[in-house]
Amino acid sequence: MRRTYGAVLVAATVTLAGWAGVATAAPTSPTASPAPAPTMACPPVLPVAASVSGSTATSVSIRYSVMLSPPCGYELPLTVSFYASAQDAAQWQNPVAQAVSGPDRFGTVTVEGLAPDTAYWFRIEDADGRRDPYLVGGPGRTTP
Description:
Order of helices and strands: HEEEHEEEE
Strand content: 25-35%
Number of strands: 7
């Protein structure tokens, strides 16, 4: 019986030694590669909000707010372009008047020199020439 226990003890010792050898083996070091630089993900929001805030016989005022600054938003000042039709505004063609905002992210731009009792649509672009692809504002109407 001692012989049986001895054989079992030797087998267990050899097995444990094998496991211990695996457990104490020097780990191989993986080749480290630099982590990729994170890319900026811009949120899916409109970077400019604008609406007609007032008018006279020859001017229309637009209240604006720039929600994001570059790289996801727009560089100030903004240029507000007025168009005589929604089709011209949609295609950014034949602007009839323009005005430039101040350096503030929230403010009002007044476009002057317009015809009385006329409807206008507007579009906005930033100082770097980036056009807001979503906003076609209007119509804003001058008073009679």
